[in-house]
Amino acid sequence: MDTTTAIARFDEVRADTERLAAPLSPEDQTVQSMPDVSPTKWHRAHVTWFFETFVLAENEPGFTPFQDTYWFLFNSYYEQVGPRYARPMRGVISRPGAYEVGDYRRNIDDRIRDLLDRVDEGAFAKLAPTIELGFHHEQQHQELLLMDIKHVLSLNPLQPTYAGGPVAGAGTDRLGWVDFDGGLVEIGSADGGEGGGFCFDNELPRHQQWLEPYRLADRLITNGEWLEFMADGGYRRPELWLSDGWGRVNAEGWDAPFYWRELDGEWFEHTLHGTAPLDPGLPVCHLSHYEADAYATWAGKRLPTEAEWEHAARAYEVVGNLADRDSFHPRAAGPATDGLRQLFGDCWEWTSSAYLPYPGFHPAAGAIGEYNGKFMSSQMVLRGGCALTPPGHTRASYRNFFPPGARWPVTGLRLADDGRRA
Ligand SMILES: [Fe+2]
């Protein structure tokens, strides 16, 4: 990457965020509907703060912050940067408003472009990894912005629409299986520090893992299949559930996926393009890890490990129903092939793997080292991307992670099974 490429990429990523926020009024952008959700304008400001704090403050001659207290408001979780405003209270911050956040963004945009224009080759080589991390960080927040506004709008009885349109209806086709021999395989990014492609630190180091023979379902589980699980008492049978999951079923009254609503015996689903009758042929989404695991148990199968998923996915091109399709919702799998369908896009796929450091993982020194490593506790890995993931933001080695009870992300499931030794 040279400075011209960096400026072009910077402009593109920054414009994408503003394009996603554009359909939302300042009032929409202010609401925080639960502690896990952040207001749209907070996302827009926080990703700007990231560039201001980690790129400008360390590289801009005579740096002064855009505003004295934004570092306090828009720091997400970086302890080494300093104290920050309480996350669950982000929705009560009415000022700066959405337009003032726009002013903040434009100011930092101009200053980043100026810096990149003027910087010499040696200094650029030093800041390039951080600015590239800033691009991918902003893309992560683009996905979160959409997941979060989906929840905000779901609580409004007017059933407002964000964007997109209904996706094509579909029947559920027969679930196929693809066999893998396993053996000694390599897991983790092959690009980090080698091929020049970007990866997060948690995708490194590349290392060997032993896999027993296994099988993966050739597509995601559908709404229609989920209805069968429900009809068979799926949410009422403790023997199907992990203990923590059964606790949540009872404590929170789970009886269907997160955005499903039953009206006069018919199921409807909240989507970013409004509330729609449930389509049995579309992938089931907004499941917790506990629900995905219970379904797999009910089906006599299991969830894939992240190594099984990654080993299988390496053979496939990273194409799918991502956030460039403008439907902003998972789509049907399409015609069967002799391979795996829906690997990238549609729904993040829960794995049975706890989010842990790979052997030899070392977070970077300083505050930026807090990006991933400190979350390697009490979370499960998801793979593949979803219909809200920006194109170019996922890959076979990408490790997403959420707590096992999270239901507001766009999460689904692919079954796995043990294979037979040849
Ligand atoms: Fe962030």
From TrEMBL:
Pfam families: DinB_2, FGE-sulfatase
Domain DinB-like positions: 10-143
Pathway assignment: Amino-acid biosynthesis; ergothioneine biosynthesis
Organism listed in the record: Nocardioides albus
Positions of the Sulfatase-modifying factor enzyme-like domain: 177-331, 339-416
Keyword Ion transport: no
Protein name per the record: Ergothioneine biosynthesis protein EgtB
Family matches, as InterPro entries: CTDL_fold, DinB-like, EgtB, Sulfatase_Mod_Factor_Kinase, SUMF_dom, SUMF_sf
A GO BP entry: ergothioneine biosynthetic process
Keywords: Iron, Oxidoreductase
